[in-house]
Amino acid sequence: MTGPKTNERPGVRAVHRYCQMSATKAREVLDLIRGEEVLHAAEILRFSERQAAQPVAKVLASAVANAVTNELLDPDELFVAACFADEGPTAKRFRPRARGRAGKIRKRTCHITVIVSRLPEDQLARRRRQAANQRSARARRVLGGRARRAGAEAGTPAPELALATPTQAQAETVGAAAGEAAAGAAPVVEAGAVRPETVEAEGAARIEVDAESGAPEGDGVAEDANAGASDGRSGEESED
């Protein structure tokens, strides 16, 4: 045997005897919280839809209360070291059936046991490091927000962070890629030059104005040609 028996595990325990349900139904719920931290186990039992979750939650709360009261342990450092359900006495009843026969009714009971113990030191140290990192990150966010608000009130830009966050770096990379794609797809237009789109828009507007005035398209060009021809004839007559 590699370790102590389940019912001999060290820790603080609580027992619910003669629970009015079968041990099989209670074990299905106990398998969900075995080895979990006390807070997580309480959440699992709270949102479980099985009928056995309610008595198991009461036994877990009793075990935690025993650990806090008798052993002076911190409830945040406890986990479910062991939990099991033993079969209790079964009450036998019968139900009348046809032809004078009797159907068996077994009203089963069980004994639910939950043992809570303190987490190992390595896990507690890891949890403390994670909590410290979360607190430091929150402090940095609060200080950054205060600096931005103070800069906005004073009218001066807030100092930028030395290192960009991954979200900002990704945004800059995406923006640079989009700019390169746009530069490769669209032609470069020098300063002061007229864009082709502008010329086409002006031509379309001129055609619409001509249509509204009733003049046929290209009248301006025909008039210029007629004027040139008349100028040529007048020049020939003056030479004669």
Descriptive report:
- The strands form 2 sheets. This protein has a 3-stranded antiparallel beta sheet.
- The protein is built from 7 helices and 5 strands, in the order βαααββββαααα.
- Among the domains are: 111 residues, Alpha-Beta Complex (Ribosomal Protein L22, Chain A), CATH 3.90.470.10; 40 residues, no CATH class.
- Helix 2 runs antiparallel to helix 3.
- It is α+β, with helices and mostly antiparallel strands and 240 residues long.
- The protein starts with 11 loop residues before the first strand and ends with a helix.
- Helix content is 55%, strand content 16%.
- Strand 3 and strand 4 form a beta hairpin.
- The chain is elongated and about 95 Å long.
- The C terminus is likely disordered.
Secondary structure topology:
Blueprint: E1 12-19, H1 23-33, H2 38-46, H3 53-70, E2 78-87, E3 91-96, E4 102-107, E5 110-118, H4 121-154, H5 166-185, H6 196-213, H7 219-239
Antiparallel strand pairs: 1-5, 2-5, 3-4
